[in-house]
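My hope is that you will study the record closing this message with an eye to the fold:
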Amino acid sequence: MNHADTGPSMYPKPNDEEREAYIQAMSKAAEPTFWGYLGCQMESASEEEVVVTLDAEPHHMNMMGIVHGGVLSSLMDNAMGIAVMLERPGDQTVTSNLNVHFLTPAREGKLTVKASIVHRTRRSVTVESRISHENGELVAISTGSFRVK
């Protein structure tokens, strides 16, 4: 997901060691929350991109036998939220808008979402994400706006 210059962050960036410690602390704190209930797994996180996976199982399906749209939306919101938290460590942020396009029905298997920041201001961050199925199909795309409190 290459984009036009989004401008430098206005906030100091943690070094690699601080970033890794922050990610580990977030992952541990998220285990007993909806993140853990859903089954999300952090694969990688950098300044450029956050990668989260989910092994879609029968309990993630709707009555038509495909992954429920709420699961896909939550997966993208989680990945984009992590990108924002890494961009603005220590700030409180909340999703203010989530726009999702469902492209292909997803079945059981590994889903991978990649999220990256496309725009930032003092009070908001805009992120995009894409979910792919392990078979390579693009399942859904989204944009999210996050308010910084």
